[in-house]
Specification:
It holds the Pfam family Spherulin4. This is Spherulation-specific family 4 protein. InterPro entries: Spherulin4. With 214 residues, the chain is α/β, with parallel strands linked by helices. It contains 7 helices and 8 strands. It has an 8-stranded parallel sheet with strand order 1-2-3-4-5-6-7-8. Helix 3 links the parallel strand 3 and strand 4. Helix 3 runs parallel beside helix 4. The longest helix has 15 residues. It starts with a strand and ends with a helix.
Length: 214
């Protein structure tokens, strides 16, 4: 089972070797989050289009990154992002970031999910960063129920969460070499994960250790 979801937010022309490593790791990847400009940008980027095509050619899911601002961003803007990822990069899925966790915002995300499926999305991931209300499991293929530092992750008391058939994902940064993130993720119900050494405001500009190890 492929267990790595890779959010790698660097341009292919700046980090070509790293993107090559991602493509070569295809059998281990659940998917790759494509993020040209904190979203799809204002126009197609040929370098990202080429990477997306190569990933699809080796059967890797390409998920377009879109910020929802915890339910505050106008739904039409999010839907426009999804359409641009589909039309410009052939993305077959969506990674919605900064997703609210409470039931009060559920209707907003339910409408977004309907729009995503209508736009041809085949994989929908919601990044809550923490366990959301269980109702969200009805909307997505993947729920990110943790995003944060390794220090927080290893000291966090596990929170029981039932996602049904929806898979849980944990995104951990500031991770030292040989930290048992994958094992810890499994014990906490996550079958997808990503562990990177990056820290600070831009941790997702570093590759997962699993890919660095080759």
């Amino acid at each position: 089972m492929s267990t790595l979801l890779v959010p790698y937010y660097e341009h292919p022309s700046v980090r070509p070797a790293e993107w090559e490593a991602i493509v070569e790791a295809a059998p281990r990847l659940y998917g790759v989050v494509l993020n040209p400009a904190s979203g799809p940008g204002e126009r197609p980027d040929p370098a990202f289009a080429e990477i997306a095509e190569r990933l699809r050619a080796v059967d890797v899911r390409v998920l377009g990154y879109t910020d929802t601002d915890y339910g505050r961003r106008p739904r039409a803007e999010v839907v426009q992002d999804l359409a641009r990822y589909r039309d410009w990069y052939g993305a077959d899925g969506a990674f919605l970031d900064q997703v609210a966790s409470g039931l009060g915002d559920f209707g907003y995300y339910q409408r977004l999910a309907t729009s995503a499926w209508g736009a041809g999305c085949t994989t929908l991931a919601l990044n809550h960063g923490a366990p959301p209300h269980p109702a969200y499991a009805r909307l997505a293929d993947v729920l990110v129920t943790f995003e944060g530092t390794w220090d927080t992750y290893r000291s966090l008391r596990p929170t029981p969460f039932t996602a049904g058939r929806t898979r849980q994902c944990h995104l951990v940064h500031g991770v030292p070499p040989d930290a048992p993130v994958a094992d810890l993720a499994r014990t906490r119900g996550a079958t997808i994960h990503c562990a990177v050494p990056g820290e600070g405001a831009h941790p997702w500009g570093t590759l997962p250790y699993a890919l660095q190890a080759g």
